[in-house]
DNA sequence: GTCTATATTCTGATAGAC
DNA sequence: GTCTATCAGAATATAGAC
């Protein structure tokens, strides 16, 4: 029932409890999902009392929102790199789809928090803007294939949705998209993205 | 804080508490998601004590698993009808994708429970087999486009994943896939399914 | 089959000492 | 900034009366 983390006998924590809590929370979400996350267990894992986190975060949701924000930033960084590997918009979208799946596999906690924690974005301005920056990075790519704004949005949405579905199936081991199938699933995502993008280009 | 449901003053519930509990649970999941579901609140809504459900269900998870099973059965029924509307396999997959999105929109609780409740399928044999029957219904359709078993599986997986992603985005209002956009989202799903299926047919 | 009552456990959050 | 102590609330599940 107890965590395997050593408790500091008293008083002072090492320099950066704030970040230690964020790390512990991420680990906890990895194991139990966003809904299994509790401040109490996070405190235990960081080796502090349950009251300590309240000096660093207003409440449970605020800590979670901070993780979600960093999740969107990590996404933006990964997708920016994926897209930078080619000049061809179809290949850029394929790369994005692949990176999306990889992100979900390598950072399952961040992935779950961004999409499945039910955070109220109107309460956390930074979270909302971090999410919008991800879209802002990708829309110009879609726009190269679909100059009309609505069409570009539709294209990006469908590519992202396809990648999202594969990422979820991979994560849940559904449909036999099991454990070590990351590379295969990335390829499926890339192939699907190409099919969607080309249908548009050909139309 | 109290439920709007009238309590029966004492003793006997009407004939079918078991089904009344299932209905109340479904309603509760619709409002709060699978993780917000509790036996206690379900009991309150059905107008019985918190102990009553244990005469009908072994525990909380068993009730949830029963709902999930009925969710898979509803899926199979809907998808069977969708697929029956055409002889053309590409159109059948497009119809399936559309029905998938519609199911998620019209039965959000069942949708969430089947995919997001984290049920242990090894504990509930009927749940596992109900899920397999959905796949068994659709695989022959994919097989008409991809005679090789692995290819058919891959095709179905990618179509289902695309529909799943759109369904999730619709449900969460993400990417501006907001409230009344059901018909549009169904069309997106159908179009994406066609793009995936045709890439295969053309290859 | 349903109730009342209870044991147990966990949570978020606050007050006040150090 | 961290601790101890505590409150208030809620949940799962069981025992035993009716």
From TrEMBL, chains A, B:
GO-annotated molecular function: DNA-binding transcription factor activity; transcription cis-regulatory region binding
DNA-binding region: 38-57
Keyword annotations of the record: DNA-binding, Transcription, Transcription regulation
Short name of one Pfam family: TetR_N
The keyword DNA-binding appears for this protein: yes
Keyword Transport: no
All copies of domain HTH tetR-type, residue ranges: 15-75
Domain of life of the organism encoding this protein: Bacteria
PANTHER family given in the database record: HTH-TYPE TRANSCRIPTIONAL REGULATOR RUTR, TETR-FAMILY REGULATORY PROTEIN
Descriptive protein name: AcrR family transcriptional regulator
Species of the source: Kitasatospora kifunensis (Streptomyces kifunensis)
């Amino acid at each position: 029932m107890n965590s395997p983390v050593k408790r500091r006998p008293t008083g002072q924590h090492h320099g950066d409890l704030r970040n230690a809590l964020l790390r512990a929370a991420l680990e906890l979400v990895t194991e139990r999902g966003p809904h299994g996350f509790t401040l109490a267990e996070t405190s235990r894992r960081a080796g502090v009392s349950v009251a300590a986190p309240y000096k660093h975060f207003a409440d449970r949701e605020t800590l979670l929102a901070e993780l979600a924000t960093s999740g969107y930033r990590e996404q933006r960084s990964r997708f920016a790199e994926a897209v930078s590997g080619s000049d061809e918009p179809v290949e850029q979208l394929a790369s994005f789809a692949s990176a999306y799946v990889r992100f979900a596999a390598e950072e399952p906690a961040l992935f779950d928090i961004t999409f499945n924690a039910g955070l109220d974005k109107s309460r956390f301005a930074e979270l909302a803007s971090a999410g919008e920056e991800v879209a802002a990075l990708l829309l110009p790519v879609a726009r190269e294939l679909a100059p009309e704004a609505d069409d570009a949005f539709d294209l990006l949405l469908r590519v992202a949705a396809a990648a999202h579905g594969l990422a979820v199936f991979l994560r849940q081991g559904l449909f036999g998209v099991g454990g070590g199938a990351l590379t295969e699933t990335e390829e499926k995502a890339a192939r699907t993205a190409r099919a969607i993008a080309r249908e548009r280009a050909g139309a």
